[in-house]
Amino acid sequence: MAAGKANLSTVRAIAVLLLSGPLASAQVAPVQNDCAADGSVVNAVTGEPIPRAHVFDLRSQNATAADNAGRWSLSGLMCGQGAINATRPGFLQGTTREVAPGIPGSLTLVSGSPAHDLVIKLTPQAVVTGRVTDESGDALPAAQIIAMSSIVTNGKRTVQSAQNTITNDLGEYRLAGLRAGRFVFCAQTPTLPPRVPPSDTTATQDACFPAAPEGGAISAMAIFAGTETHVDFVLRQVHASHVRGTVTGMPPSRGATLTLRYTGPLSQAPVARPAAIDPAGRFDIRGVPPGSYVLVVDYFDQGHRLMARVPVDVGSADVDGLVVRIEPGITVTGKVRVESASGAPAPRSWGLGILSSEPGLEAGRMQWDKDRSTFSIADLSPGSYRIVGTPPAPFYLKRAMLGGRDIAQDEMPIMQSGLELDVVLGDDGGAIEGTVEDAEGKTPASGAGIIALRGGRMARLSSAGPDGHYRIQNLGPGDYRIYAWDDLSEAEYADEDWMKRHGGYGQSVSVASGQTATVKLTVAAVGP
Length: 528
Description:
Helix content: under 10%
Number of strands: 47
Shape: globular
CATH architecture of the largest domain: Sandwich
Structural class: mainly beta
Number of helices: 3
Number of domains: 5
Strand content: over 45%
Radius of gyration: 29 Å
CATH class of the largest domain: Mainly Beta
Distance between the termini: 70 Å
CATH topology of the largest domain: Immunoglobulin-like
CATH superfamily of the largest domain: Carboxypeptidase-like, regulatory domain
């Protein structure tokens, strides 16, 4: 006890010395709250002033209302970096941090120097309305409407839930506050609390617009700022089946919830059917329309994740006798080594991850050792994966060997634990540089997105500077295809059909160790 008191006294003495020494003023410097700003709120589309907008600063919690000319003024603000925000019914929230839609800026308030003429741009919201009925034209109250934003991830188009609402007693709905973009809208009858289908052989089929055929590509509808779009849905009765089986491998006295998830083109939609598991492990999911699904069980037992994934194709007949075996997630171990041409030591801190193109597959838990030379990836679901890495210059991810295959280049099925991954970094890379011009070959394409593909996969991203110049460094020796697009977020480079339409401006280039290849590019328009 005496030793503990002595240690505590020592800590207090050190704290007093620190607070009374040279660093004291920096540590206890008071925050100034005498900054000020003024400006205007305008429509981001038309540029017209927006009267009576609510203008506020979250840090100091000061607020005001813009006048009829959209002008505002705030004082008593906290100095330093921050943002002034504005809202108005019918518009999306805007901020001084956004110098253009989607482009972040910064605001630094300085005591004694008020910030003048700040412009906050508010974008008009997009609205979608409609009605949901059955085949007879009768309204369907409490039907769920889901707006899913169409985005590109890892070069492939997918959707993610953006907003949802439910229909009123007349079957009508209104989705407000949407940003401009491309969307898929779906309607479904409520699943919570569980609904009983009209019979064991029929169910209400969910509907989406634009429709995505089973196994087909996702299409989406463009929604523009300040517009109102009308979309109606008819939910029809279709043949339905039972999905029955048994869950095994559950620890004693442990419960689990099984979920049937749709895995079609719109698999990211929040459409799932939970099912109860009885004490003997049996389950029976009623009213399942035809389609492709996966049975999912996930839970943690004493810090360890247990899971099951079983694909199910439902047709015109009941699916019986399924066995869903719950097992621990897959663990892959690995080591990192360097093949250095310069003798540079291995990097200490960098990003390494595992990805899959299969919807719903989790990326697992990455755990490094203390010197970051070995690692483990736990809780992987069975599936196909590849490794991605972003080591600092001058290194690049040279290869990642697993079972004799380089999964830095190609996906590989990982179905069991016990595999060891050999990750190799190299520093003998080369570079690509050049200029980007517009379609007429006259004007430098400032800000164009640059992507280097190797074997159809993204190797590195860059962008053109104000003079149209770009440079991509630390590329492993080999052959690449390099492109310039106006909006990389819309580039579906992993889609063969899309590349046939938009990949004609690309250039092939070989990168040699220690050399810089020069390539002139022409920007192609792919943005919405």
